[in-house]
């Protein structure tokens, strides 16, 4: 009868589910993951990587058999490293009483090994420690390179030769900078690929792990109302803004060699631009998304000096903030830009002629990361004809605020309530903290979890990196060869005046 055959089907399905569950549990029990933080004594490890791993541990997102190894040249015992990292672990995820207990459990899984980054022998000793802690048959390795870039290749060589996983996977997270121009980036990729396959390399840009950046694709591809407007037909310009209200702090040595274009524009803002402007991917698979991003990057015109402004912060007597050139470890005649703005153009059918204005700067008056989309004017606007409404007021604007206070809002024209007819530009507002009570995870948590799970969508592929360098390398070369002096702007101001001229040149409403 139908009832009994349905009952049999139900029992069979349950049996199948149980056996899949058993298989998965068995797999989890027999697999172990060793995470090696190379450069464990450094700031990034202490402030970001270990706290992110702890947050994942609290949320039960790490595999059951996980061990975490710190590796660096400094001499430390296991206890000393545990002591060091315990200072930056927080109970953000698990605020209940058992957080302390969780911390103890986590720290017990952390070990330290001191060694040189170019010593195969020292990596072999590390491997011995990994093996001592290994439980289970299948062993996976995740290395996080939190060391200066000139040490990347040596560390990868030693890790691959002496500490890579025999029977599981080995993956390596590489921190930026990935070279300083197209040639050095290609050279770094070539050297890394002597020891690793492309799919083992996870080039991390932590800004890609931010909630709003992830949401950009959801917004575009799971709502009907945005995608039809997402082109030159309706969008007048797009602004990608990265503004910090503090200077370079202790990063002088690193920053003075790289500058804001390499630090923020060539990677982070360009990645966001690619996600913003790409065509619909075939699927949400990493390779499909990355294929579409590469197309956009390759369609970008290399930035011209005439479409760029560079600036550098000077001291502010009122707030007693020091000039960039007075920062420790920065040379007093440095021409390194701490601010840059550039208009970029994508030569394809969707975006022909639409300026993408990138603005990135340090020591500015605001702290924000935003994508602002300005729409075209309403054709034959009735309200403008009758009431002479200010033309600019009539344009809609969509703002995605990545930081701080994640939000999405749309500026729309609205009638001011009352007997008269007055228009007002007001916001349709989605403020994350009022809509979602849950704490937003740190970008490093998402990216570490993705690397563990083999999800590559938010990591940069080598052809993407190459295409991204091609956009900015000519500008960087010209700035450096011609020794272009950056326009000085006071610490805490809105940046160089040149930005306003650049925006006006491309009819962009700015500020
Ligand atoms: P640190 O300068 O703190 O360096 C990390 C560790 O590397 C140090 O603890 C030190 O360990 C070792 N190290 C430092 N200098 C040298 C050297 N000249 N030769 C060999 N080893 C050295 O860097 P961070 O932790 O701040 O950052 C790590 C990496 O991540 C860097 O490449 C940086 O560019 C990148 N990055 C950092 C960000 C941040 O927010 N801090 C953001 C984005 C990228 P020991 O002496 O014990 O071996």
From TrEMBL:
It comes from Jatropha curcas. Residues 36-215 form the Glucose-6-phosphate dehydrogenase NAD-binding domain. It catalyses: D-glucose 6-phosphate + NADP(+) = 6-phospho-D-glucono-1,5-lactone + NADPH + H(+). Pfam families: G6PD_C, G6PD_N. Its EC number is 1.1.1.49. It is an enzyme of class 1 (oxidoreductase). Pathway: Carbohydrate degradation; pentose phosphate pathway; D-ribulose 5-phosphate from D-glucose 6-phosphate (oxidative stage): step 1/3. This is Glucose-6-phosphate 1-dehydrogenase. Signal peptide: none annotated.
């Amino acid at each position: 009868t139908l009832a009994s055959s349905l009952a049999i089907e139900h029992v069979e399905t349950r049996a199948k589910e149980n056996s899949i569950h058993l298989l998965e549990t068995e797999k989890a029990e027999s697999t172990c993951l060793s995470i090696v933080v190379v450069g464990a004594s450094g700031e990034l490890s202490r402030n970001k990587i270990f706290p992110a791993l702890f947050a994942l541990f609290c949320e039960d997102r790490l595999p059951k058999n996980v061990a975490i190894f710190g590796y660096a040249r400094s001499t430390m015992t296991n206890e000393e490293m545990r002591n060091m990292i315990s200072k930056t672990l927080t109970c953000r995820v698990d605020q209940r009483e058992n957080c302390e207990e969780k911390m103890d459990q986590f720290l017990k899984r952390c070990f330290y090994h001191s060694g040189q980054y170019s010593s195969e022998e020292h990596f072999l000793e590390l491997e011995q420690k990994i093996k001592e802690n290994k439980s289970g048959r299948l062993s996976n390795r995740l290395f996080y390179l939190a060391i200066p870039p000139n040490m990347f290749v040596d560390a990868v060589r030693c890790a691959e030769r002496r500490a890579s996983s025999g029977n599981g996977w080995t993956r390596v997270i590489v921190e930026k900078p990935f070279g300083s121009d197209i040639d050095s980036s290609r050279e770094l990729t070539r050297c890394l690929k002597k020891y690793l396959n492309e799919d083992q390399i996870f080039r991390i840009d932590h800004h890609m792990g931010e909630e709003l950046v992830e949401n950009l694709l959801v917004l575009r591809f799971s709502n009907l109302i945005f995608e039809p407007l997402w082109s030159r037909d309706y969008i007048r310009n797009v602004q990608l803004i990265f503004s910090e209200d503090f200077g370079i702090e202790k990063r002088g040595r690193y920053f003075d060699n790289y500058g804001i274009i390499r630090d923020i524009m060539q990677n982070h803002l360009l990645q966001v631009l690619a996600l913003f402007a790409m065509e619909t991917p075939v699927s949400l698979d990493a390779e499909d998304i990355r294929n579409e991003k590469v197309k956009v990057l390759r369609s970008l015109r290399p930035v011209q000096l005439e479409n760029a402004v560079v600036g550098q912060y000077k001291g502010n007597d009122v707030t007693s903030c020091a000039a960039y050139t007075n920062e420790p470890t920065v040379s007093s005649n440095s021409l390194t830009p701490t601010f840059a703005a550039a208009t970029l153009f994508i030569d394809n059918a969707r975006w022909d002629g639409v300026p993408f204005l990138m603005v990135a700067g340090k020591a500015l008056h605001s702290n924000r990361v935003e994508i602002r989309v300005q729409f075209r004017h309403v054709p034959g606007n009735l309200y403008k004809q009758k009431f002479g409404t200010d033309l600019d007021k009539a344009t809609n604007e969509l703002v995605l605020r990545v930081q701080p206070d994640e939000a999405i809002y749309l500026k729309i024209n609205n009638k001011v309530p009352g007997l008269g007819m007055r228009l007002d530009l007001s916001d349709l507002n989605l403020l994350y903290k009022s809509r979602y009570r849950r704490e937003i995870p740190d970008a490093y948590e998402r990216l570490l979890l993705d690397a563990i799970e083999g999800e590559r969508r938010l990591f940069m592929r080598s052809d993407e990196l190459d295409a991204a360098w091609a956009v900015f390398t000519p500008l960087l070369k010209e700035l450096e060869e011609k020794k272009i002096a950056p326009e000085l702007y006071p610490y805490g101001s809105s940046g160089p005046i040149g930005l306003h001229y650049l925006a006006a040149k491309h009819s962009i409403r700015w500020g």
